[in-house]
Here is the input.
Amino acid sequence: MTLPLFIEQLLNGVQLGVTLFLMASGLTLVFGVMGLINLAHGSLYMIGAFTCATVTGSTGSFALGLGAGVIAAALAGALIEWSVMRRLYARDHLDQVLATFALILIISEGTRYLFGGAPLWLDVPDALSGAVALPGGAVYPLYRLAIIGVGLLVALGLFLLIARTRLGMQIRAGESDREMIAALGVNIASLYTIVFALGAGLAGLAGAMVGALQSVRVGMGEPVLILAFVVIVIGGIGSIRGALVGAVLVGVTDTLGRIFLPELFGLVLPPSEATTVGASLGSMLIYLVMAVILAIRPQGLFPANA
Amino acid sequence: MLELERITAFYGASQALFDVSLSLGTGEALALLGRNGMGKSTTIRAICGLTPPRDGQIRLDGQAIGGQPSHRIARAGIGLVPEGRRIFPNLTVAENLTAAARPGYWDRARVEALFPRLGERRGQYGHSLSGGEQQMLAIGRALTTNPRLLILDEATEGLAPVIRQEIWTALRRLKDEGLSLLIVDKILAELLPIADRCTILEKGVSVWSGAPDGLDPATRDRFLGV
Here is the structure.
């Protein structure tokens, strides 16, 4: 294990974490404020990626594609909230899971119908291609650094939105007593639509940015969705700060675990066994971390209503 | 300004209000009386749209508000200080006074002038306040929506006498400034002096209405005694 490799993998972990944060922040807000489990959040991520790839492909501008991806996901989110979700708030979580699972299938098949089964490819924009030399001898792709930067800016913006603005106060008030905030004159239905669209837009942003690193294909959102659920459970449901800390923790643990656990086991086991044991332990490491954290703090690291 | 005409309301299958009528003039204070479980809180929930009435008319300044979503009713000019205060525990005092505010005479500064303790506690979270402070905050929060009618459900319940007096003094001042009040309170000796008229509920029916001095011992004994 060399220092440059470690730095590179650490940054990969942070970049995964930041992407997870963009997904998890919307998920945690929707769950915390509206009490809604939304499995279709991964579909919004996919909508962002497909829109970005298509618009970038036809206009040649990645910036336009990125903006279109965010807007398309936010609009899709608003439409889903208005047409489906608001009928589910009073239902129990199982009904919500069932309905949003149906949405995954509908959106996935719809996308397959529109775009076909073959993945789309989105290139890293020229301005962000290339690599940066980092202290310690590591060389790291500029585009991945840009994703980290954008994610941290969004995190800061969300903190300010929740902590400083009236909308943020109403969101937090709705988390603790939604009947009361309505009785004071706040239109809770439009507040929910805004929160849902905001979360959807952030998922779309994540999908659009990641689209240039991976292939853009149907079903790309679900693996990220599962990790995002782990993140919000670790971080504390409803907490933006928890989502950020949880996301970086999960991203770094997952990335470093997969790379370095086989090497670590190689110190005590024969190489072939070390690879097998290390790889399987690496892929379940975040779940072990989650179990330990929940054993110590059942409400997660930053419970929203503490 | 507020008229209820033959309201009925249900919690699921069980009927809580059978026939409630009352009226309240602009600038007046109405005491809504009755023993526990007779429908006072349900009447308030019906007015505010939290338990929408199934039948009957509710009018605010002639405009029908019965059955509208609760945020519309609030925006029509009704401020609610609910039973149990229900301040937002995870918001600071200042945020409680900002989250639902609508423009008008009452803003955070004026509420803090009315209840100076709230100014001293501005940055504290709602859950860290004492019961009396939470009650002041609940009243202040309703005032920041700049209502024309303020509804108070058990606003002095469980508070020390000196705090109760502070709240009654504030309510009297609000009334003198022209705000209409609808008040539910257990302590008649403190409630009746501020009231212009009373309506008594029994088993979900409004059975008596009149001026406070018309509440003779027989009426009190029949409807309000324990």
Summary: Chain A touches chain B through 21 residues (CB under 8 Å). The radius of gyration of chain A is 20 Å.
